[in-house]
Specification:
Elements lengths: L7 E6 L1 H4 L22 H12 L6 E6 L5 H11 L7 E5 L2 H9 L10 H15 L6 E5 L11 H20 L2 E3 L1 H9 L16 H14 L12
Parallel strand pairs: 1-2, 1-3, 3-4, 4-5
Helix pairs in contact: 2-8, 3-5, 4-6, 5-6, 7-8
Length: 227
């Protein structure tokens, strides 16, 4: 598994990462083993890392903020990410960048174009990678709509492709969350996973956690060494 002993994994993003996390002060990152991490994928990731790799003492923090697009993420990046000195940073952003184009078409000032999204993501990765002893994981935004011709699904796929391109260019890990959900959606109706096709219940949160841990080469079957 890529995360080494004593390293700090920070999960950054929007409401899908936030998921009701507790805030120790203002919007500072949260950590803990229960409600502090919210009820989304960060809690599952933290639980599995500490259950399967207990001797590594891996620290997991949740720096998700509901409503964030990549502009808002950039504004708080130095305060919430760089200043907390993580070893690994996982980023799941882009859903609101796309969603606002569809639920608020009359507010173009809230829309983030593909060009702005790509340039901002490249900037954040370039500024952050040299400061990490571990690395970065870029997670594609997703929309739990199996019909690929759906307008918002098509647009989300476009932004997901941007994330993959930036990951390939920078040598960071990439998680295709859309592909992970598509596999489940071939068997289950999206309403069973997310009422609005975005905010996941425990099934969707587990899909995200599993996809992220797979990229980190997590070994579910490892034997825990004796103390």
């Amino acid at each position: 598994m890529k995360i080494k002993s004593g390293q700090h994994l920070m999960l950054v993003g929007d409401s899908v990462t936030d998921m009701g996390r507790q805030r120790p002060a203002s919007d500072a990152p949260s950590e803990g083993f229960a409600e502090q991490l919210g009820h989304g994928y960060p809690r599952i990731v933290c639980g599995l890392l500490n259950a399967v790799y207990p001797e590594r003492l891996i620290r997991v923090t949740n720096a998700g903020n509901s409503g964030n697009n990549i502009r808002a993420l950039k504004e708080r990046w130095d305060r919430d990410v760089i200043a907390n000195h993580p070893d690994w940073v996982s980023v799941l952003i882009g859903i609101n960048d796309v969603w606002r184009q569809f639920d608020s078409p009359h507010k173009p000032f809230n829309h983030v174009s593909p060009e702005e999204f790509a340039a901002t993501l490249r900037e954040l990765v370039a500024r952050t990678l040299p400061q990490l002893s571990g690395g970065m994981v870029l997670m594609a935004p997703y929309f739990m709509e199996p019909l690929r011709q759906d307008a918002m699904r098509r647009r989300m796929d476009e932004y997901g492709a941007i994330v993959k391109t930036v990951a390939d260019e920078s040598g960071t890990l990439f998680v295709d969350t859309q592909a992970a959900f598509d596999a489940v959606l071939s068997h289950r109706y999206s309403g069973m996973i997310a009422w609005d096709r975005v905010h996941p219940n425990v099934i969707g949160a587990t899909v995200l956690a599993r996809a992220l841990l797979k990229a980190l080469e997590f070994d579910y079957d490892r034997e825990i060494p004796p103390a």
